[in-house]
Design a protein that fits this description.
Layout lengths: L5 E5 L3 H12 L3 E5 L3 H9 L3 E3 L2 H5 L4 E4 L4 H9 L13 E4 L5 H13 L3 E4 L2 E2 L1 H7 L2 E7 L1 H14 E6 L6 H29 L4 H8 L7 H12 L8 H18 L4 H18 L7 H9 L11
Parallel strand pairs: 1-2, 1-4, 2-3, 4-5, 5-6, 8-9
Antiparallel strand pairs: 6-8, 7-8
Helix pairs in contact: 1-6, 4-5, 8-10, 8-11, 8-12, 8-13, 9-10, 11-12, 12-13
């Protein structure tokens, strides 16, 4: 098997940044692309090669990670002006890491494969910390050839790779269900913490009790701490879950599946976005419930 050691990472956000640094640590030459000049400067200082367009990032790459926000951005960076396909060589492996509707992932993969590329539907999970440590979970689906050629790069960025099928699509389906659970857990964390504040329970004490009790979840442990400390620096923003739970809602309607909890959580995230909290950490949905409940959480100054 050819040892792939030149990679491109398109999108140096929370997860893409961690993946790019993990690839550098593993000895890859990494070409990073992002629209933010300050991020490119930091990446250069970390040892990466910076590129202002996807086409420049992809020109020498054997494997390309696409870490953009949604399917529209994925289409732009792949097929638009200055897009990756302008320079990608036949046989380049594209790992589609954005959370997208399964139908959108399949459509994009079909276009890439028609152009002679290999594709792994490769959405990820684990949060910013796991991305930085090279321990992300990859929910992958694609051909055996695509997986074989991408294996060295996948080993560099992930702690666990699930192979869910031989064609793109199943990876995005599983990630969609993961996001259903994640979004609902964040929303119910916000509800629990706000209810506790309303009844006068000390939030730090509550957090320490619940995070080791049966009602806990990974999202409670992570986002609950954000609420307790009043720190809404965006690790994953409210707007991300407006998008991801929107995918859940549309795909559930198409399949005829009942998803009442996801729908309620989506409504909460939408309210937070409409209140101007879209760029804050997704735990900021607690602020919406706090205002409705007439309480001030840490990090809040007034009730509007």
């Amino acid at each position: 098997m050819q040892d792939i050691r030149t990679a491109a990472v398109i999108g140096l956000g929370s997860m893409g940044w961690g993946a790019a640094l993990s690839l550098l640590r593993a000895g890859f030459i990494v070409h990073g692309c992002d629209v933010r000049s300050d991020v490119l400067q930091r990446f250069s200082e970390a040892g990466g090669k910076t590129c202002e367009t996807p086409s420049k990032a992809t020109a020498e790459a054997d494997v390309v990670f696409v870490f953009v926000v949604n399917s529209s951005q994925a289409e732009d960076v792949l097929f638009g002006p200055g897009g990756a396909l302008e320079t990608a060589r036949a046989g380049t492996v594209f790992l589609l890491c954005a959370t997208m509707a399964p139908s959108a992932t399949v459509a994009i993969a079909d276009r890439l494969e028609a152009a002679g590329m290999l594709v792994v539907d490769a959405p990820v999970s684990g949060g910013h910390a796991k991305a930085l440590s090279g321990e992300m979970v990859v929910m992958g689906s694609g051909s055996p050839e695509a997986f074989a050629r991408a294996q060295p790069a996948l080993d560099a960025v992930s702690g666990k790779v699930f192979r869910l099928g031989d064609r793109p699509g199943p990876g995005s389906q599983v990630k969609m269900i993961n996001q259903l659970l994640a979004g609902v857990h964040i929303a119910v964390t916000a509800e629990a913490m706000t209810f506790a504040a309303k009844t006068g329970i000390d939030l730090k004490t509550l957090y320490e009790v619940l995070r080791v009790s049966a009602g806990s979840s990974w999202m409670f442990e992570n986002r609950g701490e954000h609420i307790v400390s009043g720190d809404y620096t965006p690790r994953s923003a409210v707007d991300i879950f407006v998008k991801d739970l929107g995918i859940v809602a549309s795909e559930a309607e198409r399949a005829g599946a009942a998803t009442p909890l996801a729908s309620t959580a989506l409504s909460l995230f939408q309210q937070a976005a409409e209140a101007g909290l879209g760029k804050e950490d997704d735990a900021a949905v607690a602020k919406v419930l706090a205002e409705k409940s007439g309480v001030v959480l840490p990090g809040m100054t007034v009730i509007r």
